[in-house]
Amino acid sequence: MNQYEIAVIPGDGIGKEVVPAAIRVIDTLTDIHGGLSFKWTSFPWSCEYYLEHGAMMPEDGIQTLRNFDQIFLGAVGMPNLVPDHVSLWGLLIKIRREMQQSINVRPAKLLNGLASPLRDPEPFDLIVVRENSEGEYSEIGGRMHSGSDEMAIQSAVFTRKGTERAMRYAFDLAKKRRQHVTSATKSNGISHSMPFWDDVFKDVLKDYPDIATTSNHIDALAAFFVMKPHVFDVIVASNLFGDILTDLGGAIMGSIGIAPAANLNVERTLPSMFEPVHGSAPDIAGKGVANPLGQIWTGKLMLDFMGYEDLGKLLLDAIEHVLVSGIKTRDLGGRATTEDVTSAVIEYLKSCG
Ligand code: NAI
Ligand code: MG
């Protein structure tokens, strides 16, 4: 029996509703299939914690988290009481940086039972691998002068180590999928960093002779996400390009309430963090109507990363089954509650044995 220690940070708003729901689902799955179990340890770090203690997490919070195998997070944010940059930088970004979670992964898939805003799309199933630690989101630069002389400079930083790490992760992922990697570039317009990106891509692909590759400029790639998302398998992108593409990927699926994400420490020397794409949704918090499927799908990403892909697949099957059966929360046009959807997922998992 493999036992794993998971740090749980439900956070604020609907995070406190969908995280317990997803934990019940995952516990059902591990109870049925045996071989592994999760020991969940919950931390109240959130905006509520901030209002009481003046910080999003205690001084030794990062030290505490280091002892866990993974981190399972809901969402943080109480925009009326705590500025968003405080909640974001005080917890999420701090964890991503301190734990060297250098890759962000977000899948987008046309799910059975869920309407995409695209008209009659062919089935698509893609994953964006986003470099999560450097690139365009660097702290190098500054502002000077004022008035009509005012200027700002921000430098993009691309290291061979960081670029190669993201690309190798994408290729290794493609090996387990449909054997194709697309590189998001812009070497026609950006004359130093993007030709470098292309060079590293060409170097890395030599180690993966069985994987087919395409290189697309980011502007064309964005259009293809709308026109023909079914042609993609794994896409590797810089921090900025990946940020924009992943939002588009979430949008073509149909609802922010179902989109999952993972921040990965690919060296596996420190815990990775699994969190849905959506925020704390203050407009519906406390009403019991939040869609738990994004958090549940996030659980699938955690199982996949830990090597339990067979269990991960069962979770996604369960999500699709419940969508097809029409048990949907309000964001998907239905009337079901968080509890209705969660119970339906659990019943399906039990029925599969
Ligand atoms: P949001 O994702 O919380 O909500 C946007 C809209 O989508 C709302 O109408 C909400 O009701 C709906 N929605 C989101 N998730 C849903 C779900 N699971 N089920 C049903 N409906 C859902 O984004 P918003 O309103 O911009 O941000 C609210 C707070 O969350 C802010 O404080 C923001 O900073 C924070 N936030 C935190 C994130 C995180 O912790 N990773 C990510 C995004 C926002
Ligand atoms: Mg974004």
Automatic annotation (TrEMBL):
<feature type="domain" description="Isopropylmalate dehydrogenase-like">
    <location>
        <begin position="5"/>
        <end position="345"/>
    </location>
</feature>
<keyword id="KW-0479">Metal-binding</keyword>
<dbReference type="InterPro" id="IPR011829">
    <property type="entry name" value="TTC_DH"/>
</dbReference>
<dbReference type="InterPro" id="IPR050501">
    <property type="entry name" value="ICDH/IPMDH"/>
</dbReference>
<dbReference type="InterPro" id="IPR024084">
    <property type="entry name" value="IsoPropMal-DH-like_dom"/>
</dbReference>
<keyword id="KW-0520">NAD</keyword>
<comment type="similarity">
    <text>Belongs to the isocitrate and isopropylmalate dehydrogenases family.</text>
</comment>
<keyword id="KW-0464">Manganese</keyword>
<protein>
    <recommendedName>
        <fullName>D-malate dehydrogenase (decarboxylating)</fullName>
        <ecNumber>1.1.1.83</ecNumber>
    </recommendedName>
</protein>
<dbReference type="Pfam" id="PF00180">
    <property type="entry name" value="Iso_dh"/>
</dbReference>
<dbReference type="GO" id="GO:0009027">
    <property type="term" value="F:tartrate dehydrogenase activity"/>
</dbReference>
<keyword id="KW-0560">Oxidoreductase</keyword>
<dbReference type="InterPro" id="IPR019818">
    <property type="entry name" value="IsoCit/isopropylmalate_DH_CS"/>
</dbReference>
